[in-house]
Amino acid sequence: MDLSLLSALNEERATRRAAILVSDMAGGGQRLIRWADDFTDDPLADELARRFRSGTSGMVERDGGAAFLTVSVPPPRLVLIGAVHITQALVPMAQIAGFNVTVIDPRTAFATPDRFPGVALHAEWPEDVLKTEPLDPYCALAAVTHDPKIDDFPLQEALRVGCFYVGALGSRKTHAKRMERFAEAGIGAADISAIDAPIGLDIGASSPPEIAVAVLASVVKALRRPMEVA
Question: PANTHER family, from UniProt (predicted)?
Fold first, then answer.
């Protein structure tokens, strides 16, 4: 491997940015495609989009020969805003599914190690936590406090950075008020419409564990859907 390409690939990995090393099996040439690149005109554009979403390396056949795609994507994160009963049920499910999970809630009566053992837990305001642990496109964010003072900032930040999933707990009436606040804050209608609210797949969930199942299902669905190539 070209050392400059190796260095560039390692830099992308270190900063949680996805990249694919394309190796021409016939000629031996290599090139690095970053997730943030505009690869619309690349002959492998559709395959690159699929691989960025699946995270799977492998051989691909194309006109003129075969290429091996070495895919490097960061492990998916699930950031949960609100240390509530739904979150208690959701954390172990998400960990089993392979997500790195973070729980954020400034309410110290809720965000306690006894209630959330074995998980990254921050009894701080989301604004403060996200300064040092920023969101990125390989993060999912679910806001479940019902308190706009806690939920609104991380939801807006998740939309700004392009998290692959953004969900918020609340009724349709609650979400309508949220949409008004976000519009007043200058967030576009297309971004606002990306919020999954009421949160989770519509499976008739009622109890906190059932709602947690619905949320996780929505997160996995969003993670695995084909990435659109602009």
Answer: ALDEHYDE OXIDOREDUCTASE MOLYBDENUM COFACTOR ASSEMBLY PROTEIN, MOLYBDENUM COFACTOR INSERTION CHAPERONE PAOD
